[in-house]
Amino acid sequence: MGNYYLCDGGNTNGNGFMFPYQGYRYWIKDWPGNNSSPRCPEELFNMKHARARNVIEREFELLNGRWGILRSPLWYSVKVHNRIISACCLIHNFIGKEMEPDPLDVEMEFHMENQLDHESINSIEASDEWTTWRDELAQSMWNERLGNPSL
User: Fold this and answer.
1) How many CA atoms lie within 13 A of 135 on its CB side?
2) What's this model's pTM, rounded to 2 decimal places?
3) CA-CA distance, 96 to 91, in Å (whole number)?
4) Residue range 34-82, pLDDT digits in tens
5) I need a surface site. Which of 19, 26, 120, 125 has the fewest CB within 10 A?
6) CA-CA distance, 63 to 22, in Å (whole number)?
7) Are 9 and 26 contacting, i.e. CB atoms less than 8 angstroms apart?
8) Looking at beta carbons, which pairs linking 121-125 to residues 24 or more positions away fall under 8 Å?
9) How many domains does the chain have?
10) SS3 of residue 32 by DSSP
């Protein structure tokens, strides 16, 4: 299916938008202690979806905190803006690999709030194709997990 956005609950899958299953555990806090194993393909999918969203959101917060240009209005074409984002990511990764951690960055990671004004997408056209793909992906992950319970 290529690239897609990981979205929060409350909608249905559409072209390019992947939502978790409704009615199944999702948030990491919903997976306490001994009850932390997914009980079905839908829960496993939701668990992996939530973990991926957490990583992505944390990284965007770090990038937005470090690079002011990412917090400013978009005056550039989409193509130029994508290049700016890529450049910020590359420099961020280079700094992370080649330099000692900046104490301010470490503190920022724990205390930063999302500073972007988000434009809302008000509706997404439902797509049976994407829902079928999500179902097949969830079942594939479940089958792989059954073959290797440590996953």
Assistant:
1) 7
2) 0.65
3) 9
4) 667 888 999 999 999 988 988 888 888 888 888 888 888 778 888 898 8
5) 120
6) 30
7) yes
8) 124/11, 124/12, 124/14, 124/17, 125/14, 125/15
9) 1
10) coil
